[in-house]
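Anyone up for a design puzzle?
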């Protein structure tokens, strides 16, 4: 495992105004509930997303980053209790002008091991155990590359 793949979740205050990388700010990853504190976020996840941004040269929008347990369990989200969003190790993203399929293929090609492909976004996780799936049904797939 190389240095980039070693997860390192950091704890931030909701009030922190930080630039995490060249193109990402902490505000983009904060829980949508608007009130929880602290915020958990894996620096490896931010590095992966920056690589995706640099590769496509397009804005990467974080639809959902960190989620507190309450927001994750809310009817609006209906997230799994074991969601990596709750651990600060996942983000649902869309890349402006790029299909989710292309984003998933590129993410796999650079070694990201946790990818969920949905109709309008891609789930990117920093976990090191491979898990690829399609949509809300979580249909397991072996690869996003053409066969």
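Challenge accepted. My sequence:
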């Amino acid at each position: 495992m190389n240095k980039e793949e070693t997860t390192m979740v950091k704890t931030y205050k909701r009030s922190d105004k930080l630039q995490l990388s060249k193109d990402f700010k902490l505000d983009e990853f904060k829980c949508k509930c608007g009130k929880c504190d602290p915020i958990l976020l894996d620096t490896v996840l931010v590095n992966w997303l920056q690589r995706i941004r640099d590769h496509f040269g397009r804005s990467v929008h974080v639809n959902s980053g960190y989620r507190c347990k309450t927001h994750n369990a809310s009817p609006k989200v209906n997230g799994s209790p074991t969601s990596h969003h709750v651990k600060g190790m996942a983000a649902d993203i869309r890349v402006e002008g790029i299909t989710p399929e292309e984003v998933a293929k590129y993410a796999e090609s650079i070694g990201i091991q946790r990818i969920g492909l949905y109709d309008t976004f891609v789930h990117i996780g920093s976990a090191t155990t491979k898990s690829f799936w399609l949509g809300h049904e979580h249909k397991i797939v072996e690869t996003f590359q053409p066969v």
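A detail worth pointing out: The chain has a mean pLDDT of 94.
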